[in-house]
Write a structure and sequence with these properties.
This protein has 410 residues and is an alpha+beta fold. The protein contains eight helices and 26 strands. Helix 1 runs parallel beside helix 6 and helix 3 runs parallel beside helix 6. Bound molecules: adenosine monophosphate and magnesium ion.
Length: 410
């Protein structure tokens, strides 16, 4: 009897769409002091209670004038001096006010002339360049306007957003709590750096790569360490991980061999929603959920392949948008660029490939010579990934899709 045809593996794009259907915000919100809010996701729209600037002010060190008073060769007397933070009084007709950057424009003045365009003559000043109404005046509210949204809910708070919040006068910001991720690493061959390497052993490099990625995506992470290749140990660690975490990330043990226990363990402790993807590296990627014992709900599960490059690439491609969804962050498209390939790639795979490449001095892309998914030094040499469609031969000079690593951290 023929076995039923296996459904085709999902493509990268289908997988992303599938993940995003599940990536709903899991985090509650809290108020944090501005400096502690860095890297968090804003939980509410922030409406400004002030105008910035509060009043029209000068963009330059110079002289506040009434444009109608300025005529060639005329020397206008300086009637007052207005530093920033010390508002003056209405500008007397036929005079100018010495004014400094950030100082309030006096009533009656309608332009500022920068000092480089003026010549001081005793008690007065000759304006060498005829101003236009509005020159060098920053308008009240041109940066922040009262009752307008200044920062939108779902924004990841970077330094500049903290500055905007401070410009509004805020000391605390409403943010979602950080997404909690548990990570563990399967493989009897794994040894922690610092311990002695036995024949056939390998240092657990995925741990450091993945913990760093999880943190740099703004999550809290619990390291559950190395888990032996046994169904019972895998199930037990999954149960433990599901308790206090929103997402479980694992590496290894997700292929089809007898020593691969991730798939049956997730099926026993919850459900597997997706397994195997038409991408290279990264085919064995798995996604599902693990039930919480004695509580409602589940933790999401992402099983990454053991091969170090495959776990790195699948994390960047799939975990990034999924984590954004859990965080409540507004979706941010992954920026890619079209660049010239300065190499040949004559034997492409049937799957969507992500090649380790680097921009060269001519603005083209060089390819790391060994593209094996076990060669992590290639990922470290590279500065981005070339997203190559299935079966796409690349000839030197072809234009290709390049994703700089930096795009993943946007
Ligand atoms: P697996 O997916 O468990 O079959 O592992 C595939 C390959 O990745 C094997 O050569 C493993 O030794 C290697 N590998 C698995 N986990 C790790 C890890 N945490 N760090 C480095 N290499 C690993
Ligand atoms: Mg293994």
């Amino acid at each position: 009897m023929n076995s039923p045809a296996k459904p085709p593996m999902k493509t990268t794009q289908e997988t992303l769409a599938f993940l995003m259907e599940h990536a709903k915000r899991c985090a509650s919100s809290q108020q944090l002091p501005t400096q502690q809010a860095l890297g968090h996701i804003l939980a509410e729209d922030l409406v400004s209670a002030v105008n910035v600037p509060t009043q029209d002010n000068s963009q330059m060190d110079g002289y506040a004038v009434r444009v109608a008073d300025v005529q060639d060769e005329l020397i206008l007397p300086i009637s007052q001096r207005i530093p920033a933070g010390h508002p003056g009084h209405p500008l007397a007709i036929g005079t100018v006010a010495r004014i400094f950057t950030g100082a309030v424009i006096p009533e009656g003045a309608d332009a500022v002339v920068m000092q480089e365009d003026c010549e001081v003559m005793g008690e007065g000043v000759r304006i060498k360049v005829k101003p236009k109404v509005g020159d060098y005046i920053r308008r009240q509210g041109e940066d922040l306007q009262i009752d307008r949204i200044a920062l939108q809910s779902g924004t990841r708070l970077d330094a500049q957003h903290l500055g905007v919040a401070a410009a509004m006068g805020l000391t605390h910001l409403p943010v979602f709590r950080k997404v909690r991720v548990a990570a563990f690493f399967t493989g009897d061959e794994l040894v922690m750096p610092g311990q002695s390497l036995q024949p056939g052993g390998i240092y657990n490099s995925n741990r450091d790569t993945l913990l760093a990625l999880i943190r740099s995506f703004g999550c809290e992470v619990t390291d559950l360490g190395i888990v032996p290749d046994s169904l019972e140990a895998t199930r037990q660690t999954l149960r433990q991980a599901a308790q206090d975490h929103d997402l479980i990330v694992t590496s290894g043990g997700v292929s089809v061999g007898e020593e691969d226990h991730i798939k049956p363990a997730v099926e026993a402790e919850g459900q597997l929603n997706l397994w195997q993807i038409a991408m290279k590296p990264g085919k064995p990627f798995a996604f599902g959920q693990v039930q919480r014992r004695g509580q409602d709900g589940h933790a999401w599960f992402m099983g990454l392949p053991g091969n170090p490059v495959a776990s790195f690439v699948t994390f960047l491609i799939f975990a990034r948008p999924f984590i954004h969804g859990l965080q409540g962050r507004t979706p941010t498209p992954l920026r890619s660029y079209v660049l010239r390939a300065d190499f040949d790639w004559p034997r492409p795979d049937r799957r969507n490939e992500f090649l380790r490449v680097k921009v060269n001095e001519q603005g083209g892309l060089d390819l790391f010579p060994n593209q094996s998914s076990g060669v992590l030094t290639g990922a470290a040499w590279a500065d981005g990934l070339l997203d190559n469609p299935p079966e796409q031969v690349i000839q030197r000079g072809d234009m290709v899709k390049y994703i700089p690593y930096s795009s993943f951290f946007n």
